[in-house]
Amino acid sequence: MNNQLEKDLVISVKDVSKKFCRDLKRSLFYGIQDIASEIIGKPRQSEELRSQEFWALKDVSFQLKKGDALGLVGANGAGKSTLLRIISGLINPDTGVINVTGRVAPLIALGAGFNPILTGRENIYANMSILGLSKQEIDKNFDSVVDFAEIWDAIEAPVQTYSSGMSARLGFACAIHIEPEILLVDEVLSVGDIKFKMKCHRRLAKLQEKGTAFILVSHNSHSILNICNKAIYLKQGQLIMSGEAEAVVNKYEEDLAFSEGKDGRSKAIMRLREKPSHESSGLDITSIFFRDEQGNILETPLSGKPAYLCVECQANQHFEDINVGVKIRAILGEQDVVLYLTSNNDSCLLEITPGKTEIQLQMSQLGLSPGRYTARIYLRQGVRSFDIIESFRFIVETSEIMSRCLFYQPRNWQTIKLD
Length: 419
Ligand SMILES: Nc1ncnc2c1ncn2[C@@H]1O[C@H](COP(=O)(O)OP(=O)(O)OP(=O)(O)O)[C@@H](O)[C@H]1O
Description:
Blueprint: H1 3-8, E1 9-21, H2 24-39, E2 53-65, E3 69-73, H3 80-87, E4 95-100, E5 104-107, H4 120-130, H5 135-149, H6 164-177, E6 182-186, H7 194-209, E7 213-217, H8 221-227, E8 230-235, E9 238-244, H9 245-258, E10 269-271, E11 283-291, E12 297-298, E13 307-315, E14 319-330, E15 337-342, E16 350-352, E17 355-363, E18 371-381, E19 384-396
Helix pairs in contact: 4-5, 4-6, 5-6
This protein binds adenosine-5'-triphosphate (ATP).
Family: Belongs to the ABC transporter superfamily.
GO cellular component, one term: membrane
GO molecular function, one term: ATP binding
């Protein structure tokens, strides 16, 4: 490996696997068995699964350099938290090697490391000293931590009286003030209001400029794409894809969208997970699908025929000047954008009232040629972004011969008699 790259590496994970046991009694028994084997000098059976065991992580490898921001995506139970716990040294892998260079600040569970009966002030001292700061250094940073967490009046109250948002803010403030080389963030950014999230994002960008590397776990693709340049996608403990964040998030969302469909076909309706209130931006997309002119749901729109792209959303208040963007790419081929429409460019800003609304992009003759497509759909108001769906996948079919056409051309044929 080249020297500079080696010098910049802060995390190197090589072939890491971790197994767990579904049965607690058995797990305790295996624990005792492993200790006994170690005492008598017998090698542990690290590579094999015993009854009721499963791989929470299997042969995962990746590297992280200074200043890298890595998003970790995957469904529930994919192994994301297990990986963070291994990197932060809370648990050991069964096989594989991990090298971590520098101070790690783990922000793993909400209010991680806080003692609920101690006050905010006491917890700041306890937490930051565990993360490696001296009393003098904490004294110096104390006011800035409280300011950042915005819990001025409550700082002398026990942390058990804090809301989940307050504890998360305090945890985040402590972690960033130790200026770690590596920051591990597990869903913490999903707590708190938009203003606080923006503040965190700005602070993370500053830390990143100074060379802090971080790993962010989030179910919110928007957060990952806003913050991370790289990402890895885990599925049932296996590393499915790693690389540039947008490509990895696209793959993850495509898999999510297709996971219930048969034979890789799209389902007629893409339903989105209902967001808990702390994740919602106030205007969330709840489902996406096509209708025909009569209002029937279309599983596969047809080239040249009417197709209404419907974006159903849920608003918790009245919104004006909403801009809907639809960016469509062909899945096979060069991944170039084939169609990019925004209601704003069409001088059509929408008004959304509280409750459920269906926004329709009405295309009287669909111009897309037959094939598989993925659409990125977003709702914005000026520069404020509400919701983004990275990958609504659909298939366009045709009832005509169009094999050599790049797009559908509406047309008629006729003859005109000239003499
Ligand atoms: N201590 C443990 N003992 C037994 N099984 C465990 C233990 N910790 C995690 N698991 C299991 O390992 C698998 C991976 O869990 P993990 O928490 O890493 O997933 P995750 O991707 O972080 O999920 P989520 O998105 O729901 O937080 C899950 O099946 C989980 O039930």
